[in-house]
Amino acid sequence: VLTNSYKDGFDQGNEEYKNKKIKEYEELAINDCKNNIEIRDFSKDIDSIYVDVYNEAYTKEYDRIKNEEYEKKGYNDGILDKYNNEVDSLYLESYKKGHQRGIDERNLIKKECFDMGYEGKNLNFNKEYEPIKEILEKEYNKGKKQQEGESIMGAGVLGAGAIVGVGAIRNVKKRKNKN
After folding, report:
1. What pTM was computed for the model?
2. What pLDDT, in 10s, does the model give residues 78-123?
3. Backbone phi, then psi, for 5, in 5-degree steps?
4. DSSP states of the chain as a string?
5. Closest CA to 129 of 79, 74, 70, 78
6. What are phi and psi of 148, to 5 degrees?
7. How far is CA 145 from CA 116, 118, 141, in A?
């Protein structure tokens, strides 16, 4: 009975120790990768379980970081309305996802600038869109021109309506005067 209790306690303690070490090696790998430290070579004394955990965590973190980088690159290229055909195939999906987000954002900010011009507001956009400032200014001016054109046309229609109305009133008065 004592040996079973000892064995159970030992096994439990050993399992806790292994789980703690696995966690340590995972964290070490993630920190190494984030800090741009090359993947480590471990001495033969280190149990292969921990080496495998380290290598797997490092690779996983490296891929996560690279996917993030390519998504940001795609986003920036989408904002600039350009496409990079030489993206590593491992990260192409991330690049495409970011690129589409960038295109969507570009179209949205262009519309917002057009609307600002149309509504007579001052042109205002975030600093991140500075690389496409000229395009945004053109959209703003298009909105401004369209509003001015509609105002002139509206005034023309209103003026024509007033002339027709005055003419109709005169005709009615002439008829009344004849009777």
Report:
1. 0.70
2. 999 999 999 999 999 999 999 999 999 999 999 999 999 999 999 9
3. -65, -45
4. -HHHHHHHHHHHHHHHHHHHHHHHHHHHHHHHHHTTPPPPPPPTTS-HHHHHHHHHHHHHHHHHHHHHHHHHHHHHHHHTT---TT--GGGHHHHHHHHHHHHHHHHHHHHHHHHHHHTTPPP---GGGGGGHHHHHHHHHHHHHHHHHHHHHHHHHHHHHHHHHHHHHHHHHHHHHH-
5. 79
6. -65, -40
7. 12, 8, 6
